[in-house]
Amino acid sequence: MPESATLQREQRTDVYQNLGERFKETTRELCGIMFLFCSGNPPQLENRVRDFLQHESGMEFEVLKDSSTQTLAILMPGFTLDATHYQALLLKQHLQETMENVDPRITLTVFPGQVDPTPGVLKQMAESTRLSTSSDIHIFTKEEAVQEPGRILIVDNDDAIREFLTIRLKMQGYETLEALDGTSALELIEKWEPDLVLTELNLYGIDGLPFIHQIKQLPVENTPKIVVLTEQRVERTISQCFQNGVNDYVTKPFSPVELDARIHRCFH
Amino acid sequence: MLFYGMVAVYYVMIVNILYFTIMALSYRNISTIYRRTKYSSYNTLSGSELVPPVSLLVPAYNEELTIIENVYCLMTLNYPTYEVIVINDGSGDKTLPVLIKEFKLEKIQNPEIRGTIDTETVRGIYHNPDYPQLFIIDKENGGKADSLNAGINFSHYPLISSIDADSLLEKDALIRMARMYMENPEEMVAIGGDVRIANGCLIENGAVKKISLPRKIWPMFQSIEYLKAFLGGRIGWSHINGLIIVSGAFGLFRKDYVIAVGGYRGGYPGEDMNIIIKLHRYMLSHKLPYKVAFCPEAVCWTQAPDTYNIIANQRKRWGRGNLKNMIENRGMLFNPKYKIMGLITMPYNVLFETLNPYFRITGLLALIGYTLLDMTHWRILLTFILLNFLSGYLLGVAAIILEEIAFRRYKKISDLWKMLLFSALKFVGYHQLGVLWRVQGHIQYLRKNNSWGTMTRQSWKEESETA
Amino acid sequence: MFSHLIVAYIFIFICLGLIGLGIILLFLMKISQNKEQQLREMYEQKHHDYFVYIQTHLEDEKALRLPPGKLKPLERRVIQDKYMEWIEQFKGEYRAKMIQLCRDAGLVEEDLKALKSFRYGRRLGAAYRLGGMRAGEAVPALLQMLQKGKYNSLLIIIARSIAKSAQRPEDVIEMLRTLLSHGKPIHHLAADIMLETGLDTSGLLMKLLDDQDPALVKVGLVAMWGQAVPEVMPVLGRLVGSEEKDVRAEAVKLYLSSNPTLKDETIVQLMSDRNWEVRAAAAKALGPLHAAGSIPLLVKALQDANWKVRHSSAESLAALGEAGFEALCQAALSGAGIQREAALQRIELVMEKKQEHSAIEQMVAYNKKRLIHDRYFGVKQQPIKRMPGIAAVGGDYTA
């Protein structure tokens, strides 16, 4: 039915066109926006969302539905990025508690912020919500809109560290992968050819200087830069690392801002 | 005959009361052990310049199958400064070539050997600057003690740790021991680690990935046995500073004192017990305050023999070594100069470990004979058997409770069932075999048969596949 | 006879009873542990989004929010553990933010209450967590706990908590004093504990080095390895003359490692110190200092009774250019026993290093040494065969 298809497309562009216009009018004002998608399109979803948001006192909001992608766009004027994020997690928790078998996917951002509220970007956000493979709440960043990231392999046995680094580096637009131990890291470097390896020195399988040495020996076109992030504070080890071609050495506990700067320096 | 039977009954009861006393001491300490493990974070210590450096000594004799995996495991410990010294004890297989190939080692010209303990000739020392903490000593065959001595001579650091080539250390094992050492560096002369059975566990990348109990019965029995000996016994003995052995599989020593007592004694099994007795002896006769401690949170996983012949050989060797050590150090028996060691540990070992089989066997025989003469007295026989079984089982259960309180390595409910079941089954057959092996060991000693027996290894990879 | 059997029977029944109890206890324990584990995992999953939220917005100006909903005790513990993990990982602003969050969530208050519990286990747990949350207000109570306790590994846990939470240098010093009052030589451990502090370490080190108690001075000296603290150099100069043997050795080592300029008489004095550690440290320092005037002293030190001193002297001689190397060769040729041994060993090492010299200057330096070497020993590849295995003479295994 080509006719109805065109009709739908028109309708769809309309939603985003509308939204885009709206944001243009209020460029100065802060506005959080999140896109919500639940697979299977459960009934009453829109109403539930409205009920929930009304429950939060003193809050202005607007819910729009795009029937083609089955996503809900929720506008929250006056909300900062962190407030929007928090609201999103409350909403997700609420939905999970009140409905059975829901798997809400949420993508959010704030205007004016990293991205401009063009219809294209809004559409991309809705699409990425629908197609998202992870149930994690996702923050839409500039780098996603313009893809040109560096690749970073994070190697650490500690789940908490890997999680944090992944979140942080992804926010900055890097493409990341994780490895738990030295042996799998070496395999990944060969297969994936990252630009930078951010590694703990203390790993299972192979670690320390032999690990650094092995990375340097791998038959890859561009040997990755190496930044060490470790507990190891023995001076001799540190100097041996630099001698073996490590680009930077950061000891834990670390300052994430400083780490960012050092990684940035490796890329430029 | 009845009288002798009753003596045996009382003997069993006394032995058990002693066991219970030791077990009670273990219970006294278990909450401290649990708390210090739970509330210590090792990550700051494991990167600190202030932790004493350690030389790990790994004697290897015909270990071509497992040695690479073990060296990789030892090179990835959570420890700031240490070196791994593998001592190839004139292996007949490819232990040395395998190592040289894997780590691209080269012979060091004119290596510097500073120690002066007599050993067999050292043929060469191998090293690769890419693996700065790894050294291989190649020497003529001279036994485990001799290899350890050669390692001590070459080692660079003030603490040494002996590790069996068929064992894998947990990543934190060494730093946990070092923490214990640092809390009392002057008095701590030796610290032993907890040895557990790796059979049945999933091993990957030189580390135990998934812990489960062994599938085969021989390792399973040993698993239960080790649990009881280490948790039930050694924690308690350590509390009164009466430990007579630090397992050869994993122990940490002050090098200066090991050298002061002349290093390890070669030529006979039981060198791990021997070095501890010598240390006790030395420290006590020089009136130095000291401590030989057990560190149950430092865990070493070892491959247990899984066929009858190998385990029998191992136990006979232990029996022989134990008897030799007791005879060699009989001067310490009941000697008040040697305090706890002379008055409690040594007599306990002679009466209740070395001579144990004879009391039990003769007691049983006496009672059987008595019952055969007069069948109406079967109750006494039954009592004797029950007594043996129940008290032993109680100790087994108590050891599992200790494990549950502080360590919880085995998570599944089914594991618990299995442990309880095998703790009981142990008394039907396995236990008796143990007694038999010990007697055979003693006979070997008297016949001056000092062979090492066969000890074949299985590669860790096969181990994981069968698991 | 009968009575004997009765004893045995009683024994059997007691055993039976205990076995029954033990087995019941075991299963109860296992089930409750497994349940707790499952709950923990469930809660971690439930708050996954919240944890991601925190990690994403650590940088923002605004305060972080508390976890949503009403929390069960175990749930709070799971969240607290996560907070503490982050505090342990981060430095600076991010850490401060997480500490504030712990406070806002009432976790600090809760554990301060638990610190007054009657049960030791609860108090210890609270002490550990208060350290983890860097709770300054808990320090007085923790210090009291430390002073009352017997010396064992649990006391160390409390000491670490104090070091982490302390807001004033005095508290850290008080903690160290209490820890060392048990008379154990745990200076390295104490230094490691001290370095966990969030306070300015150089100020703390100054205070320690100035302390009356030699034990505290030693902790300060030990802690200074790996810390570049220029302000303490004058204090070090004073400690070099300390009567306390260990203090002097540590101070000398530290002092020399900073490459100071040494007066000739100081060198002579250090090289003839009674303590071998001092002599070894001095011998080691002379090479990098390019103190060519000390060559005769170093040659003499090749005969020192201590291995480390001989070794360091030879090393320094080799580092002192051609003159030093020539002296080394001379010692190897004309000397005897340990002196010759030490010299030969070093010469071999220097000659082996051939391949590593890439830069032209180093090449030239090497070739000059090679010439000197050949003059003394001829052009043979191996000058004088040492017997492997007996290279060691003298009995010092301390290092």
Automatic annotation (TrEMBL), chain A:
Gene3D superfamilies: 3.40.50.2300. Residues 151-267 form the Response regulatory domain. The keyword Phosphoprotein applies. The keyword Oxidoreductase does not apply. PROSITE patterns: RESPONSE_REGULATORY (PS50110). PANTHER family: RESPONSE REGULATORY DOMAIN-CONTAINING PROTEIN, STRESS RESPONSE REGULATOR PROTEIN 1. This is Response regulator transcription factor. It comes from Paenibacillus mangrovi.
